[in-house]
Specification:
With 480 residues, the chain is of the alpha/beta class. The chain folds into two domains: 7-141, Rossmann fold, CATH 3.40.50; 174-408 and 429-471, 2-Layer Sandwich (Dihydrodipicolinate Reductase, domain 2). Helices cover 34% and strands 21% of the residues. The chain has 14 helices and 17 strands. The protein has helices spanning 16-31, 51-65, 74-78, 94-101, 119-128, 148-159, 177-187, 218-243, 252-264, 292-296, 398-401, 410-420, 429-449, 464-471; strands spanning 7-11, 40-44, 81-83, 108-112, 136-140, 167-169, 201-209, 274-280, 282-284, 287-289, 305-311, 321-327, 334-341, 360-366, 370-378, 389-397, 454-457. The strands form three sheets. It has a nine-stranded mixed β-sheet, sandwiched between helices. The chain has a six-stranded parallel β-sheet with strand order 3-2-1-4-5-6, with helices on both faces. Helix 6 (148-159) links the parallel strand 5 (136-140) and strand 6 (167-169).
Length: 480
């Protein structure tokens, strides 16, 4: 039986992620009475500071990033916090860290948000201090490597001290409410599941668009690029949730088994099924912005935009293309899944001058969480000059549909699941490695074929070749 941890150890506790997401999420959970009274939170990082200074640091982060209406009980939350500085590259400091953590009667949950190069040294330090013994589980924040080989090295290092059932690999998209709702839409409604296949679905689009440029991620992003930063994790997880077979239960093993099957069924991408781009100076939301090369301060072949045509080679999805695109400095910030259904096999209205359009399901993930199903309906009237049909949307705006519930940060769910030991919304090792195999093949294809990023103006939807990628199949990207 998995017990709720009574200790939480945060590595990288003074970093940007901790300020923006982790500390606000934990404080909000505490205010809602979702953290056990005996849970002690210990922060650690290289920064030299005392517990009092860390609590002041946390208070400033909460004032900046936690909405006013969710700031109840800040003082009580801060009293849970303590801090021990540790340089992860040496064993010094880990014994003191273990003393501060103290005896964990129910269990210890560790959240590791550090550079991947420090993972192995950190694991060695935890083993040295005895912080891997007993009921201990560890959450790993991405990136988990830059390719399959480096990912295997990281996973092997962690596996020396933790069995797979104690490793929680984090993809924060899986903590988003609408992503989880995708499973409810598919598997809790008999209306959709019978038509969720190649007989009725023409294609699927997945878009993750950002308006921002490099911001504070210059060094990381130029080493990573859009394919590894977004497609390898977030987008492939979304694809797997859309395409997976019904699991036997909503349990961690059953759900992740079905996702792995999808990832292993992905066909290698061909040269004419990939477009890569890099933004140049332009305007976003009416404001001029510099190009990638200007922000970086030098020329680079790193892609800031990727469009792909993917195929899942199995019975359900035979012949159904999955169009993926992601990029920086695009016209709007949006993450959405579009399921385009096929046309009706025969329209009884053609003789009356009316045309039909295929149904379309749009699942909005950010910035707005919503579900929209486009249906055909008759325009009111006497029809003396023919029947008129119009596509109308059936909208479910999640905040309106569930107005009495609290809208939570994705990390609230993930941190709580880590503390309580539920792996369902975390990524298993074989998932990670299947994702990297597919991504590595694309990068090798780019290298072999000499495929370089095409330029596109900031504020546009990427290179023209990305539009052509879909349009040569008679498909238009969902941009409205």
């Amino acid at each position: 039986m998995t017990l709720t941890a009574d200790r939480l150890l945060l590595f990288g506790a003074t970093g940007d992620l901790s300020q923006r997401m982790l500390l606000p999420s934990l404080c909000a959970l505490d205010a809602d009475g979702l953290l056990e009274p005996d849970l002690k939170i210990v922060g650690t990082a290289r920064s030299e500071m005392s517990t009092k200074e860390f609590r002041d640091f946390a208070r400033e982060a909460l004032e900046k990033y936690l909405p006013d209406h969710r700031r109840g009980g800040v003082a009580e939350f801060l009293n849970r916090l303590s801090y021990v500085p540790v340089d992860a590259t040496t064993l010094e400091g880990y014994d003191e860290l273990a003393r501060e953590v103290g005896e964990y009667v129910k269990g210890l949950a560790i959240f590791l948000s550090t550079a991947p190069s420090l993972f192995e040294a950190t694991i060695d330090g935890l083993v040295h201090a005895g912080l891997t013994k007993g009921n201990v589980r560890i959450g790993l924040e991405k990136p988990l490597g830059i390719d399959l080989s480096s990912s295997e090295e990281i996973n092997d290092a962690v596996a020396k001290a933790f069995s797979e059932d104690r490793i929680f690999r984090i993809d924060h998209y899986l903590g988003k409410e609408t992503v989880q709702n995708l499973l409810a839409l598919r598997f809790a409604n008999i209306l959709l599941e019978p038509v969720w296949n190649s007989n009725y679905i023409d294609h699927v689009q997945i878009t993750v668009a950002e308006t921002v440029g490099l911001e504070s991620r210059v060094a990381y992003y130029d080493d990573s690029g859009a394919l590894r930063d977004m497609v390898q994790n977030h987008m492939l997880q979304l694809l797997a949730l859309v395409a997976m077979e019904p699991p036997t239960s909503f349990g961690s093993t059953a759900v992740r088994d079905e996702k792995v099957k999808v990832l292993r069924a992905l066909r290698p991408v061909a040269a004419d099924e990939t477009v890569t781009g890099q933004y140049r100076a332009g305007a976003v939301n009416g404001s001029p912005v510099p190009g990638y090369d200007e922000e970086l301060g030098r020329d680079s072949d790193t892609e800031t935009f990727v469009a792909l045509k993917a195929h899942v080679d199995n019975w359900r999805w035979k012949g159904v293309p999955f169009y993926l695109r992601t990029g920086k400095r695009l016209p709007e910030r949006v993450t959405e899944i579009v399921v385009q259904f096929r046309c009706v096999p025969h329209s009884i209205f053609e003789g009356r001058g009316a045309t039909t359009q295929p149904n379309r399901l749009v699942i909005g993930i950010q910035p707005e969480e919503n579900v929209q199903l486009s249906m055909m309906a008759k325009v009111p009237g006497l029809d003396r000059e023919g029947i008129r049909l119009r596509q109308i949307p059936l909208d479910i705006a999640m905040p309106d549909a569930f107005s009495g519930t609290v809208r939570r940060i994705a990390y609230e769910r993930l941190l709580l699941d880590l503390i309580e030991g539920d792996q369902t919304l975390f990524v298993r090792r074989d998932e990670i490695e299947a994702q990297w195999e597919w991504i590595d093949a694309i990068r090798q294809l780019w290298a072999d074929k000499g495929i370089k990023p095409k330029t596109y103006g900031a504020g546009s939807w990427g290179p023209n070749a990305a539009i052509a990628l879909a349009e040569r199949d008679g498909v238009s990207w969902h941009d409205e």
